[in-house]
User: What shape does this take?
Amino acid sequence: MKRYINISFFVLLLLVLPSTDSNSQTASFIHFGVEQGLSQSQVQTLIQDDDGNLWIGTMAGLSRYNGREFKTFSKDDGLAEDWVTSTLKDKFGNIWYGHWGGGITIYNFSTKELVDLHLAEIVKYKTISSLYEDRKGNIWIGTLGAGLFSYDSEKSTFTSITEKEGLSSDFVQSITADKNGVVWCGTSNGITIFNSNKVLAELESKNNLENVGEEIKSYCSYLTTDNGLPNNPITYLYTASNGNIWVGTQEGIAVFDPTDIYGKNPIVFNIESGLSSNSINHIIEDNEGNFWFSTSDNGITQFIPGSKDSFKGIFKIFNSDKGLNFNKVNSILQDHEGNIWVGTELGLNQYRGERFLIYDDSDGIAHSIIWSVLEAQDGAIWLGTEAGITKFNPNSRGNESNRFTSYTTENGLPSDFIYSMMEDKNGTLWFGTIGGGVARLEKGSNKFTVITKDDGLAGNSVGSMDMDQNGNLWFATNEGASFYNFETDSFRTFNSNNGLTGDKVIKVFCDSHGDVWFGIIGGDLVKFDGKKFKAYGEKDGLNSKLLLCMTEDRKGNMWFGAYGSGIYKYDGNVFRNYTVKSGLSSGTPFLISCDLNNNLWIGTSLGIDKLDQKTNTFTHYGLQQGFLGIETVQNAECVDSKGNMWFGTIMGVVKYNPKEDRVNVQEPVTKITALQISRKFEAFPENNTFEHFQNHLTFYFTGVSLTNPKEVYYQYKLDGFDKNWSPFTKLNFVDYSNLNYGNYKFLVKACNNDGLWNAEPISYEFEILTPYWRTWWFYSLCVFLVALAIYGFILYRIRIIKLEKKILEEKVELRTHELSEEKQKLEVAYQDIEEHNRHITDSIKYAKRIQEAILPTASLIKKYLPNSFIFYKPKDIVSGDFYWFANKKDKAVIAAVDCTGHGVPGAFMSLIGYTLLNQIVVEENILQPSEILTRLDEGVKAALKQREEGAETMDGMDIALATIDKKNKEVLFAGALRPMFLKTNGSVEEIKGDKYSIGGHAMIGGTEYNTRKIKVKENDSIYLFSDGIPDQFGGPRNKKLTKRRLREMLAECKIQGMDEQYEWLQNEVNEWQGDYDQTDDIMLIGIKF
Assistant: This one.
C-alpha cells in the first residue's frame, strides 16, 4: 500500500488545486494584434469575402485572416496604397478598397488578384471615406473634400457630384440607400438625399450647363439639426432590415423612417438612453435584429430591442473595462457564422458572446479566486473567497456596486478563507472555513454563529458540507467527518476508528438514495447507508486514493473526480473510467457538476469540459471558446434555479447561460487553395491534366470557420487511389506520391467546431497522362518498327546469304577438288591402317586362344573338385587375370591370379605366372602355399630383371593360392594382397593374405609369405577372387560393389549347388553393373566341401 505523507489538510488542498494569477480581468473578447500577424494595429475597415476570409484594412495594408493565419497585402502586392480607409463588397463578390490618398483598389474574387484603378488624380487625392453599390451596380465613392463620385463599371466612366451640384458638403463621410434605392449621403453638413437615377441622368444630359447645380438641387432633400439630427457632421449611415435609416453623429444616433422624413421627428439615442458614448463611428444590425454601435472613445454598445421595430430595449456596453482591448472602435462586422468582430486602434477583437460571463473583484467580489459557490433560496449567489464572503444579487438592477455585498472577519466570520458553503432546510447558511470551523448565518439575520472543534465539530478546516434526506448535516474536515443532528443539536464524529478509511475527509456528498459518500485523502472511497460503511478501491475498479470531487446525475449514477486519473462513473454495480484518451482535457478534475439536461461538467486547470451522456462525447471550453476563468477551483460549482451554471475559477466566478450556447449551423467554407508538384508550388493546369512524371502531388486546402478555427477538422479522399475517407485530421494538406497514370478525383470536406460537415465535399478532377511508351500508338509504332527492322534484316540476310552462298559455292568447288584428292590419299591410308588393325586383332585373338589353351579346363577341375565353379570374365579380348590348377595325389593346388594391368600387358604377365607355377608345383613338386609364393616372387623378379639397378619394369601380380588336402579336410592358404573367403554355417569369414604382391620393387632380404591352415568340414566353402568384382561400378548411385558387399552377398546366398550358385552370382554381378561398363577383369573361384 502506498504511503502518504502526513501534512496539514490546508496545504494538501492547495497542492491539488491549480495555481493562481493575481491579474484578474473580465473579458468577453479574443484579441488579435501584430504579434498574431496583423499588418498594423489601427484597424480601419472589416469585411468578409465569399470564401469566408476576413479582410482587415489598416494604415499599413490589408490583412486576410482565414482562421489559421493572417496574410498581409501591401502596395507591392497590388494595392493603390497601404492606408485603407473604406471598403465594399459588390454583387460579384469583388471587394473595393478606398485609400487615404484617394486611390481605389479592387480585389477580383475570381482571379484572386488586387487591381489598382489609378483614381487618385480623379478624386483630387482626397481620402476615400465611404463606398456604396446601388441597385444598378454603380459604385458611389465618398471623399473628404472632393465630394461624391459615381463609377459606372460597364462604361468605366465617372460622374462627380459636389456642393456645386447640390451636395450639402464636399466632405462625405458615409453613403447608404433606402429600400427604394434613394441615396443618402452623410456629410459634414448633414445629409443629402437624392434619386440617383434622376441625378445621374440629369448630369449626363446637361454636363456643360452652368446652372446644372440648381436643377440638380431640385431632386435633393436635406436633413440637418433642424430636422432632428443630434449634430450636422454625419459619421455613419446604416439602412436597417426594416428600412429605417440609422444616422451616427458625434452627438448620438438618430433613426429616420425614410417614408416620412419630415413628418415626424427621428428617434434619438445618446448616453442618457444607454449608449456608451455619443461619438458614433460605425453601426450594424446583427442576424437577430440587435444593433451594435462603435464609438470613438468608449468601446461599443449593443442595443437589444424589446420587440421587432421597437426602440425600447436593453443596452449592453463593452469597453476596455469589459474586455475590449481599446475604447476607440473604428469598425464592426458580423461574419457568416454570427461572430461579432471589432476593429479598434489597437487591433482586432472577436466577441465570444454571453455563453460565459465572468465576475471578478473589479465588479465588487471580495477576491477573484472563488473557492465555493452557492445559490440561496432567494436567488442570491454566495461566493466564498480567501478574503471573505460575497453575496451577489444577479437579478438586481441599477448600480453595479449595489449588487455585491461582502462579509469578513470584521463582520463576525471566524476566518476570511471560506472553502465550502451550504443552505439547510430552514434557510440557514453554513460557511466552512480553513482553520476557523463553521460560521452559521440564520435566515434574516446579519449575525454569524461560530461552531468549532470545541463544540463537537471533528476539525476546524471544513472542506465540504452537505445535507441528507432527513435534513441532517454532514461536514468533511481535516480530522474526520461530522454528522449534525438537528433534533438533538449534537455532533457525531466518524473517522478511521469507526468506519472511514482515513481521517482527512476532503469531500462529503449525500445522494438521492439516502447514502452518504466520503472522499478521503490517502484512503478508499467510503459509502455510509445509515447502518454500515462500505469501502471501494482497486478491487472494485476505482484506482485512486485521492477523490477531489463528486456528484450525482439525473439518473442516479454517481460520478467521482480522481486526482490524475480522470473521472469515474458508478452505476451501482461497476466503475467506468473516463480519461484524457476518452476526451477529457486534463486527467485531474477539480469540480464536477450535472446540469438540468443531465450533461456532466468537469472543471480542470485548462477550462471546463462538458460530457454529453446521450452521445458520450466531450466538448472542451477554454479561453478560445469564451471560458475566461481559465482554471477552475475544487468543488466551487452550483446549478441555479434557472439552469445557469456557476463555476469558481482563479479569475472570478463564471456563469454559463445555456440559452446563449448556440450551435454553429454554418458549415465551413472549404476550398482547395494550392497545389505542389514534386514539392514545388505550381498553378493548377488549365485542362486539369498532368504529365506522367508529374505524379507527386500535394494538395493544400482550408475550411474557413472563424468561430473556433482550432476545432476545424478535415477528411479527404482520392478516388482512384483511396478506398475510404481519411481519418479526421487538423492538417490542411495531403501528399500523394508515385501516382499511376489515369483519372482521379480529389475530395475534401471540413467540419466546424460543432461537428457540422460540408454537405457536399469540394472536388478536383484531374488526369495523369499515360506515358508515351504505354500508349496504343507507341505500341503500334514499335510493332511497325520491329516488323520493318525484321523485314530489313531479312532482306539484308538474304543478300548476305546469297553473297556467302556464291563465295561458298566457289570454295566448295575448290575444296571438293582438294577433298577428292585427299580422299583418295585417305582411302589408301585407311586401307593400310585397316589391314594393320586386322593383323593386330587377329594376333590378339590368337593370343586369346593360346591363353585359353593353357588355362585348366573346367572338366579337369571338376574331376578333382567336383563341387566347384569358376566365374571368369575378361574385360578385353585377352585377360590379365587367370586361374591355375594342379593335382598331386590327394592334394589339389588352385590359384586365382591378378596380373598388373589387363588386356595384352596382363596377358603377357599371366603367361609368365602360369609358366612359373607349373615349374614350381608340377616339376619341383612344391605344395606349401607360402613357399610357392616365395618362389613365384623370385621367378617374376628374375624374369623381369627387377633386381637389377635401374630396372624400369615394376609389374607383378596379386594371388590367392590354396592347397586342398582332400583326405584330411584341410586347406593351406597363402595370399599376396588377395584374401580368401571361408563360408561356414551361413557366415563368411575373410582369411587375409600378406601385404606384399608378387614382383614389383625388390625388398632387402627378400619377401616372405605365410601359410594359413584351415580345417574344413562338409558343406564349407572357400572363395578365391581377383579385385574385378569388388571394383565394379554400378548400383543406384554408381559406386563400387566393394569387398564388404561381396562378402555380404555370399553370406546371404542360400543356394547349395555350386553350379546354381555360379548362375546366381552372375546375375547379381550383372544386375549391379547395369548399363555401366565393365571396370576390370573378373574372376572368382568357388569350392564346396
